[in-house]
Design goal:
Nucleotidyltransferase, domain 5, about 200 residues, alpha/beta
Length: about 200
Amino acid sequence: MPRVTLHKELFQYDSDLRKNYPLICGVDEAGRGPLAGDVYTAAVILSDNVLIDYLNDSKKISEKRRELLYDEIIEKADAYCIATASVAEIDSVNILNATMLAMKRAVEGLKIQPDLALIDGNRLPNLECESKYVVHGDAVSASIAAASILAKVSRDRYMCQLDKQYPQYCFSQHKGYGTKLHYEKIAEFGVSEVHRKSFLKKLFE
């Protein structure tokens, strides 16, 4: 049996929707859960004739494969935009609202405005275009899966840059998530300006 590399059902899902919405963008986020760093989002518009091998939920793909897919998605997309919400915004309006804000920025930053935005999850940002949420959308829609790759790779690269600025926290290893190592480093060095204070309230009590 040949190895299956193309998840056709993801592309079929989008293709079916294009009968009524010619321009569809997929939207996803990366970094809602970590204790540090901005939250990243991406919006991607793919043409109906675009097929990308190995495209799937970013969490199901190796880091090496994600990096390769990142370049291919950017090359083949009709339009894409990567956007963020800052740590200050996360602490000010909470992570859910900050994520919605970043998603709105990603969609509005597209050079082509879509007829329909497919949003991963169960909440919708406030968009000018029609939108539809898709639970576990990165395993359902090719456009959302593509957005998940761009958001994940972009955020991982950003955390590696933060690692160079704050090497004591080992950000490149845990990407800001609440691992045992990360908590140990916070206990040793305290909370930095790139940590989400609202996620670390117990440390201030």
